[in-house]
Amino acid sequence: MKIKKVLAMCLISAMVLGSFAGCGKDEGESTVSVNQEDPAWKEAMTTPYGKYPETVNYTLGKTVTNFDVLDGTKYEGDDDENNAWTRYLKEKLNVQNTNLFEANDGDDYEQKVSMAIVSGEIPDIMGVGDYDTLKQLYENDLIADLTEVYENCASDKIKEIYDSYDGVCLKTAMFDGKLMGLPTTEISHGPGILWLRKDWMDKCGLEEPKTMEDIYNILEQFLVQDPGGNGEGKTVGLVIDPEIAGDSGGSYMANNIFTLYGAFPKQWIDDGSGNAIYGSVQPEMKGALEQLSKMYNEGLIDKQFVTRTGDDRKGLLNSGKSGAFFGNWWGAWEVADSMTLNKEARWEPYICPVGADGKVTMFTGNPNSSYVVVRKGFEHPELIVKLANMQFDYSRYEEKDDEAYKELADYSELNAGGTILGMNIDYYDAFPRSSKKVVDALESGDTSPLNRHDMGTYVNSKKYLDSLANGEESTSAGWASYNSMTAASLVAETEVNKVTPVFFGSTKSMPLKWPTLDKMEQEMLLKIITGEKPVDYFDEFVTEWNKTGGEQITEEVNQAIKQ
């Protein structure tokens, strides 16, 4: 909230000083003389990949890239304005950037954006870190309408990618029916996955879990039978984060248990009649809290979860003290070290518990986290779309043999950055989609459907499988890469019920009141689960939550949605 307040103050100051009238270059100013009737210019300005007949120079605001990783390579000396990506774009589109400002990602960058707005020197293209900043820029008429250039110049695949979010992602960047920025896409984290020690399950004679009762029984048998040989009373139950639930992409979240009971903690959801309600104060929460409290009381949940750090949680799993945690498809990386510490350890992913319909229910995350905008008056607003085409479509899916493309591949291997647009545009189900293709390629040997990102996963997975086949020792990283991929494939094959929250932003009262409400909620969760308070304490919490500002904020959220 601090950065948003800084920006708001900067905008107010700028309006008082009258500096908005001349932000950046004058409208219509261009780096080259453009003849709109020239077929070459017309094609460049209205097609996804058309190359400009003369070099188009543009200014950029971007996050800092660490080019030090290129020291000692043939790319040593590359910088923000001369690197693999700028050379690639010069060859393909005939464009060249000059960085108006650079800053470290996060608060430093957002402060640079605020300063650029106040100074009247806005770059032609820049990223903005949140919806509030985008809204301020739109309301003060500082950014270009991208509706027409998106329709004309976005490649079919870019449009297909945005469409995979069912229109929700692009909608967040629209005001009065106009597209005012390109949103970053946040790929789906998928449903929560229960990762279990399969070798422990085999020792205990346990079947794979589906229902809550199955999970309960497995955790109980892990404690009673002690398949890890820890000694009586020393095996730890389900490892969870003290935050407990609410982060759709977080590890150690008990989201699946809450959604089993129809509860959606920390999410603004539709009540079925078009009104937004806050999931954490709905009566469905009580069933999940009662279940978790019972599990904690019986030792099926780590008794010390409230005070564990992230390293503590990983240590419990990798050392064999616990054999269960909720994660996501990348959860294999959390327990990769257990492969080194115990050669017999086998972790398997399970999407559970299922409800009466046989499906897991999940809530989706925020479809986007930031935006890229164009300064109003820049003569080539279509450039932002063409850059997106090259960075997130052509170079990923189409390009194969070009020399400039090979430089991009080298950068990737060297873990170097340099991309122009500090964002990502990818399918909602990007990783499961990619993983399924890689799994198919591993089975068939046909790699032709794979793009360059898929090929990296394919090569690592092939090495892992080959080492197993040859009786050679595989690396923990190879194991984690392969098993995260197969977990993502499981996600792709599993039908789930998806609930999409209706609001992710902020309201007028949130900066002041939300920290207190959030603290109240966290205390309620911990007190009930650990048995300090009975489940009925939840009703008392809801009353206090509403009185302390929750009711007012709920009204504001609904007003924001209607607007």
From TrEMBL:
<keyword id="KW-0449">Lipoprotein</keyword>
<keyword id="KW-1003">Cell membrane</keyword>
<keyword id="KW-0472">Membrane</keyword>
<keyword id="KW-0732">Signal</keyword>
<protein>
    <submittedName>
        <fullName>Extracellular solute-binding protein</fullName>
    </submittedName>
</protein>
<dbReference type="Pfam" id="PF01547">
    <property type="entry name" value="SBP_bac_1"/>
</dbReference>
<feature type="signal peptide">
    <location>
        <begin position="1"/>
        <end position="21"/>
    </location>
</feature>
<dbReference type="InterPro" id="IPR006059">
    <property type="entry name" value="SBP"/>
</dbReference>
<dbReference type="InterPro" id="IPR050490">
    <property type="entry name" value="Bact_solute-bd_prot1"/>
</dbReference>
<keyword id="KW-0564">Palmitate</keyword>
